Amino acid sequence: MISRVMSAELAEHAGQRVTIAGWVHRRRRLKSVSFLIVRDRTGLAQVVSGGDLPPEESVVEVTGTVTASTAAPGGFELVAPEIEVLSEPCGAPPFDLYRPALTASLPTILDHAPVALRHPLLRAPLEISAASVAGFRETLDGLGFTEIHTPKIVASATESGANVFGIDYFGRRAYLAQSPQFYKQAMVGVFERVYEVGPVFRAEPHDTVRHLAQYTSLDAELGFVRDHRDVMAVLREVVAGMLESLRARAGSALDVLGVVPPSVPAEIPAVHFADAQRLTGSDEPDLSPAHERLLSEWAVREHGSEFLFVTGYPMAKRPFYTHPDPARPGYSNGFDLLFRGLELVTGGQRLHRYDDYVAALAQRGESTEAYEGYLQAFRYGMPPHGGFALGLERWTARLTGAANIRQTTAFPRDLHRLSP
Ligand code: AMO
């Protein structure tokens, strides 16, 4: 390993000769002196040099003496440098990575993602995602959950409404998992409380700013709940933990984007689906994006909350594993969490008795055979349970104000994009 000091640590080494390493972010040539700005994972460092400077995006190792300078980022610079070039670029990057504002269009950025993502504005959402996932894990670990890893090549679809990618699996028909739904439920029988962070796949035929063909699903499932409200209480803790982790771990990314994370109320307001219909003046069995926006505005106005639970979705609109509301026929113990006008989370209480699954599948005209593997768990005793899934890219998009979900993931997959 190259023994190096990070750019953010220069102040601790004033007067010493140290080595930094990183990318040439920018070169500035004045009459008698030149400056090299080196970018590493902690920020920028200025190097004062008399000689020739390697071009932008060269990877360099620079040894120099740390000297105070009011004009340098962080107040210190390296003087009397020895510069070693570790790798030279083949040409100039497709656009300036050092200009604070981004001028390139989204397709240009995405076409050049491996280099474009080095821009601080494009890197920041990814740092925010990473810190959010750390908070998700930390919160659930603290609540006694176990992290699991489930197959992404599966034998059946789980989310009836969502489109599934079929693949050839050694000559058999298989699918890319739309959700770890069945496996996380089965694992409640093993660990009681489980979570997974992983990719899921949806063959989304529409070109929208909120759908990807592959996204990161933050899933949790827990046993021994009374009903969906216990799941909602855990989700509230998870959201608070993710926001806390952002403040602790991604401060500079939040600053770069000028983002102030919202606060989450001690109890997130909830509205029943039937009341949501009254509020939106709609009798549709589902909420449209426009209705979700309207309800979010209502929650801010009435409850001062940017988060809103919608509970009691109609059974007909939820997958077969959904637990009905025993008190309101036709409605379910399923919920969504809206955040800033967008569905961020889907969750609910599930059926937990084998006979109820057989009946639910029969009612939807499906045979139990296709689900034998899944139904095993319920043959051998499962507690009342429920869970949820949060779409990571939607979370980051809503937090950062990104207009398009493609700005929140490094290499988005959609109808048109399969590379880079
Ligand atoms: P659902 O299908 O509603 O529920 O998905 C859960 C959450 O995933 C996000 N999401 C998406 N994000 C980006 N691109 C997409 N194409 C996309 N589709 C969904 C949303 C959504 O709220 N098994 C259930 C969850 C559960 O009940 O535990 C499920 O997958 O943020």
The proportion of strand residues reads 25-35%
CATH architecture annotation name of the largest domain: 2-Layer Sandwich
Distance between the termini: 29 Å
Q: Which outline best applies?
A: elongated
Average pLDDT over all residues: 96
Q: What is the spatial order of strands in the main beta sheet?
A: 6-10-11-16-15-14-13-12
Helix content: 25-40%
Low-pLDDT stretches: none
Instruction: Please name the CATH topology of the largest domain.
Output: BirA Bifunctional Protein, domain 2
Please outline what is shown here:
The chain has helices at residues 106-111, 113-116, 120-142, 181-191, 228-249, 251-257, 273-280, 289-303, 354-363, 372-379, 392-400, and strands at residues 17-29, 34-40, 43-49, 59-68, 76-87, 146-147, 153-154, 166-169, 172-176, 193-201, 214-223, 270-272, 307-311, 334-339, 342-349, 385-391. With 420 residues, the protein is α+β, with helices and mostly antiparallel strands. It folds into two domains: 7-87, Nucleic acid-binding proteins (OB fold (Dihydrolipoamide Acetyltransferase, E2P), Beta Barrel); 114-408, Bira Bifunctional Protein, Domain 2 (BirA Bifunctional Protein, domain 2).
What does this structure look like?
- The protein has 420 residues and is an alpha+beta fold.
- The protein folds into two domains: 7-87, OB fold (Dihydrolipoamide Acetyltransferase, E2P) (Beta Barrel); 114-408, BirA Bifunctional Protein, domain 2.
- Helix content is 29%, strand content 26%.
- It has helices at residues 106-111, 113-116, 120-142, 181-191, 228-249, 251-257, 273-280, 289-303, 354-363, 372-379, 392-400; strands spanning 17-29, 34-40, 43-49, 59-68, 76-87, 146-147, 153-154, 166-169, 172-176, 193-201, 214-223, 270-272, 307-311, 334-339, 342-349, 385-391.
- The strands form three sheets. Strands 6-10-11-16-15-14-13-12 form an eight-stranded mixed β-sheet, sandwiched between helices. A five-stranded mixed beta barrel has the order 1-2-3-5-4.
- Strand 4 and strand 5 (76-87) form a beta hairpin.
- The longest helix has 23 residues, at 120-142.
- The protein is elongated, with a radius of gyration of 26 Å.
